[in-house]
Amino acid sequence: MAPSAVDSRGLMLNGLNYDRHANGANGTKNKDVNTMNPHEKVHFAPKLKPKDYQIKGTDPGGKILFRDVNIIDSTGADPFKGDVYIEGQSPGLLEQGGRAFANNITGERIRYVGEVPSVEELAKDNKVRTINGRGRTLMSGLGDAHTHFSWNNGDLGKLGDIGVEEHTLASARSAQCYLDSGYTMCFGAASAKDRLDIVIRDAINEGQLPGPRYLANGKEMAVPDGDLVPGITAFAKGPLEMRETIRHHVKLGVDTIKLSMSGEQICETRDAQDCYYDDDETAACVDEAHRHGIRLCAHARARDSVKMCIKHGVDIIYHASWIDEEGMELLDKAKHKHIVAPGLNWLVATVYEAGAFGYSFEKAEQVGYKKELEVAIKGLREMHERGITVLPGGDYGFAWTPHGTYARDLELFVNLLGFTPMETLVSATAGVAKLFMREHELGKIKPGYFADCILVDGDPLADIAVLQDHSKLDVIMINGRVHKASYKEFVKFEQPQPVMEPKENVKLNNFVAYALDDGTGRTRIGHLDRDKGTITPLAFLSGTAIENLYQVIEVGEDNVIAGAETFPLTDSLNILAPISGRDVLAVGKNYSEHAKEFNASGYDSSDKVDMPTHPVIFTKRATSIVANEEDILLHEDFTQTLDYEGEIGVIVGKGGFNISEIDAEQHVWGYTIINDVTAREAQRDHKQFFIGKSADSYCPVGPLALPKSALPKTLTVTTHVNGELRQKGTTEDLIFSVPNLIHTLSKSQTLRPGDVIATGTPAGVGFGLKPPVFLKPGDVVEISVTGLGTLRNTVVKAENDNYVTKQVQAQSVIPISNLAITNHGVGLTTLLNGKKLNAKTIGRGPNSIIFIHGLGGNTSFFTPVLNQLGLNKGDHEQYTSLLFDLEGHGMSPTKATSRISIESYAQDIENLIKAFDMPTQNGVTVVAHSMGCIVAELFASQHTDMVNKLILIGPPPCPLPAAGADGSVKRAATVRAEGMRNVAITVAAAGTSEKTKTDRPLSCTAAQMSLLSQDPEGYAKGCTALAGAKDLQIDFAKLGKTTKSLLITGDEDKVAPPAHVKKLAEMLGSAQTRVLEQVGHWHVFEDAEGVNKAIKSFLA
């Protein structure tokens, strides 16, 4: 078995044992050698001029401002914080810091770096697109010095057999894949057909392809019997033929020409150490190419071919694996004329990773690749130490070095060649710009340079492997044009808009779902302004917030208004699938070409013919639905054939049964995007689709849903994987139309508003490629639909404890009472056991007072006490007061499974003390009313070392008499059956004095309102908790020895009559008592002054 060349993340490298920090034999660098910018001393022959290609299509009036970015400018200087401004300019000069910079092109260059004049004003300018970097890394786009657009990740020997049309498309996909990977400069190192590179280069420069910047090559030149692959080689023998072949390449329009000067073990025709050009041939090639202003590069692994390149002036030397001491000395003396691009990743991958493609580690070792790699690393390290320019570019496009993995070279430069991360980044940016001979305007983040840059969510200097993670490349720009950026990136300064008054004629129908960032789990629907990157929360006409798309569908989008102020879309906002909660109705084999590729794939167990006679219907489980930008989980023990299917999702607006095909269009509300992710072998083996298509995360949906009125009649869906176009189809291509699908589905079942139908996928899925290509960790799938934006998801390896599992497990059907009053828990305090209570502290003194209300009360019961004692001041220096609502009371919720008791109330107090870190060193005073007194008594008896004072207002007997317990149980049953109205009236009347009922109407009203404000279930559980006190035993005599107590009651208090209070005082031993005249059981409401006097005197 081959040793591994990658770690568990798929990053390089643990199979090669080189000291990644050492440089040279003694581990130090020669201080007299410039290893940071050796390319600056490279000067190509005077006849060679840069190809001054310009890319068309950038808006000359474009303005982009990056705020708060960590800038790596590719000069080798340390990164620095600042802003970067890109602005369209008229031809002329740019100025900054007293220096002038040539500017011959408009709209595509950097103007300011670091400090941007009038930056705050620019940020407010609606014509400036502002990106908040939030400290992320802004650097130059990367460059590749050894590029093959026309290599197609397959068998190199079969490249010559591909039709030119298909090959052109494949090359275009490779070009875009480079740009999608953050590469904005590519130096062509050979093309499989004469004009492939040239056509792609010209399409890029004309703005027909997005990039990258490219210098084109032709077929590589080789002598007969010296080719690597016959079908993609231009043959020439002798100086005259070679001159003629070069002139032919020049006539085609190449920018550079490649010689194949040495063999390659894998081709099994010539050894890599063989050189089969002679001096006359090499000299003739250099002379002819330079006469036409064209540079020459050479495939030169053999030591003699390297020396021949140096001797005759071949400009770019590829590989140089077997360079010997003589060749190294020659190269050192001529390092001002040559650049080396070793293609290092190809060599590493061939040794360690080609086994899966039929080229085993044992074979690679046998033919000499392992030895070549070891020798090459040693030689390349020495080149770097000598200040010879070595640039990254890994010979990508082979099966084991696929497109999209380009940045692996950078990690190898650090791990194997002794480059520092900064030296590697400089070589991959400014170094490749030198290869383009345009180092004055490419490869750096400096004023006057082209705005080719990437915004990286990470620090490449700390972990250069971050550049391999395409999901971390948040923004990619080329030529001042944004190629990649989430709509969340762009922020706008907005003048406040009046709530409920949207701008005239603005349709609020780009529906996006999101979760409120308050910990409650509540969801909302908003309107996304894609140009401004803002969201407007939406509401019913009444002003009530809209929670989900089902509500929009039911009332209709014309009955939806702006419900609150617009806010910027940021990464911290949790965007959800626009519609979820139900299984998705899905259709298979609904595009003819896909039906054919599916039937031919071996994965179709549903039928034996290409074209279905009836719609193939299946469902995707609701738990498989995930949102835009959420990960697709590769369950490796479930599937090795994970595949994508880009689809248009139809959202039903009007339900119905047996809907006719003629009327079906009236039942369509709108559309969204769906990725019908599939485990192909599970789809095949189970003989039906459900299992293979319903795994966790297998149904990404979003990011938007739009009504059909906001979209064109024909919709186009495209799918890209790692930037490569894989699928394209339209609703016109469906075998079974949307009306047909609605008619079919409704024949036997009633469709509901909000049902979603995935309409099927066009050809181009992974199993349809030759060979099949399935999704792997790190792959990025992007599905776009006309008017609906792009659904983007990254594939990751699934863990047992993944985010979908956590979300599903967190769902509960157990009801929680009294939660709506706090908007599902906003502002509540979470205890150690997970319970949430409404609680707060006031003051910051060293002495603690805890207030415990009674049955039917809440924290407001003690407001008069706090006010008159001055305890309501936040800066009170003597006391820290804790007020809270008992579980189920006031604003504290209670879960149906929570059993409330006097004991649980007491435990809550202990947890609250810990949660608020209440001071207890001076003892704690507990003030309680009614049932709260029993809680206080129990808590004090459990914490005699903490509680030193008790103030009990209307304390009931403990244990509670049997009659009182029975009455509490019956009262609980009453409120559960009838609600609070009758109980509130009865209890308030029975609990107040005659004088209160006649002369203190506000006091009666306060008692009644306190009771009416209670949640019936919370109050009922309080009643049963009180009933449980019939079995509670407290040693009051023992308690009295550790606490000083004040007992307050009313002379008409039926719950705590004076005789009972007197007896309790005697049991406590040292208790003071105070009986308030003409007062019932609601003491603070009936006689706040009397209560306050008693407490104030007691605390004095």
Automatic annotation (TrEMBL):
Keyword Metal-binding belongs to the record: yes
Signal peptide: none
Domain Amidohydrolase-related: 138-482
Residues in AB hydrolase-1 domain copies: 848-1087
Domain Fumarylacetoacetase-like C-terminal: 584-796
Protein origin, superkingdom: Eukaryota
Membrane-traversing stretches: none
Keyword check for Metal-binding: yes
Gene3D superfamilies in UniProt: alpha/beta hydrolase (3.40.50.1820), Fumarylacetoacetase-like, C-terminal domain (3.90.850.10), Metal-dependent hydrolases (3.20.20.140), Urease, subunit C, domain 1 (2.30.40.10)
Molecular function terms from GO: acetylpyruvate hydrolase activity; hydrolase activity, acting on carbon-nitrogen (but not peptide) bonds; metal ion binding; oxaloacetate tautomerase activity
This protein's UniProt keywords: Metal-binding
Pfam family, one: Amidohydro_1
A Gene Ontology biological process term: oxaloacetate metabolic process
Family of this protein: Belongs to the FAH family.
Name of the protein in question: Fumarylacetoacetate hydrolase
Organism of this sequence: Recurvomyces mirabilis
